[in-house]
């Protein structure tokens, strides 16, 4: 998988989180007993802190504001893709899913480690990831329907881009995040004076800063899209046992420690050829966002207002 494709997959994961969030709400509402919420009770409390409560109405409004439009659009996309794959007789096979899993988990110690990372960072379990992969594969097969890639084209691409298929490496990382550059410099100085980075990680572990939390990051791919690019760029230039910082991330700074480095296993030749064939076909196809829109139009997708009146076109 190329760095660009990894970035796209990261975006897909974020969108899947929003679908899962609202999906969970729908499930909870569906499980509610008829007597649990009165028809007139718009202030049904779903959470409390001290003497203050959060009503279901507030909860739903916040979820809709944050995720509503994208989630609804993605749900319509799934329906349209499902209808089109059925019409065309397109099947997503176990081999298709296994190949995607191997590509996505290649930057991790194992498939299990990949699942654990997705669960920890995004709250997505194996079933969620499988469903997203199945949707993405189906959409790509629709987009590339009828596109033929010659073996010579695959050979030429491989010859021109050998760096995309080299083994690459994984880096075992630990990181400390602080809000001020002076604090990062002080941490770096403590390491230079002989303090163990592991001890500092223990001291700062669990202290969140922005979207990041100090601690052991474990084995990560050298181009891992789920880590700040500034962190990975610095890590790629280090050797095992090196410490670097301060590194500007978000609104703060990081100090990182490369604990170890190892080479990744290379995919076999047939997997590489299949990957190139897929990439070349997608390059010739319409952008996937355009395919999704054309399918929504084809199957008459529309979003209704609260009163059931069609809103602006999709």
Automatic annotation (TrEMBL):
Nucleus recorded as keyword: no
Transmembrane segments: 7-28
Enzyme Commission identifier(s): 5.2.1.8
Enzyme class per UniProt: isomerase
One Pfam family cited in the UniProt record for this chain: Rotamase_2
Nucleotide-binding listed as a keyword: no
Domain PpiC: 168-260
Signal peptide from the UniProt entry: none
Keyword set, alphabetical order: Isomerase, Membrane, Rotamase, Signal, Transmembrane, Transmembrane helix
Catalytic activity field: [protein]-peptidylproline (omega=180) = [protein]-peptidylproline (omega=0)
One MF term in the entry's GO annotations: peptidyl-prolyl cis-trans isomerase activity
Entries under InterPro entries matching the protein: PPIase_dom_sf, PPIase_PpiC, PrsA_foldase, Trigger_fact/SurA_dom_sf
Annotated protein name in UniProt: peptidylprolyl isomerase
Source species of the chain: Paenibacillus kribbensis
